[in-house]
Amino acid sequence: MKKLTQYLFREMKNNFSNSDYGLLKTYGAIPGLILGAYFPEFVFKYLSILIIIFTLLFMRYIYLLFFKSNIIDN
């Protein structure tokens, strides 16, 4: 798994532009928007849990972005 991750990081670093990273994030957001539109009662029912999950994942992202050095080398 580590070799696959290193390969993907290397390929992204060599081949992706800044706009490609933005599009990648958009690709990830679109399924969530579609599911939220089709299942609004589920989203409202579990809104607090979804906010907690989002917050934890966002905190991890901030940690990786600003505090952990050499993400690709690990």
Short description:
The chain is built from four helices and no strands.
Radius of gyration: 16 Å
- Show unreliable segments: none
Shape descriptor: extended
Quaternary organisation: single chain
**Number of DSSP E strands:** 0
The succession of helices and strands, N to C, reads: HHHH
Kindly name the structural category: mainly alpha
Query: In percent terms, what proportion of residues is strand?
Result: under 5%
User: For the report, how would you describe the main beta sheet?
Assistant: none
Q: Give the fraction of residues assigned to helices.
A: over 70%
Mean pLDDT: 84
Supply the number of helical segments: 4
Distance between the termini: 12 Å
The total tally of domains equals: 2
Attribute tags:
single chain; 74 residues; mainly alpha; 2 domains; 4 helices; 84% helix; extended
Give a description of the structure:
The chain is mainly α and 74 residues long. The protein folds into two domains: 1-37; 39-74. It contains four helices and no strands. The protein has helices spanning 2-15, 18-38, 40-45, 47-67. The longest helix has 21 residues, at 18-38. It starts with a helix and ends in a 7-residue tail after the last helix. The relative contact order is 0.08. The mean pLDDT is 84.
How is the topology of this model organized?
Elements: H1 2-15, H2 18-38, H3 40-45, H4 47-67
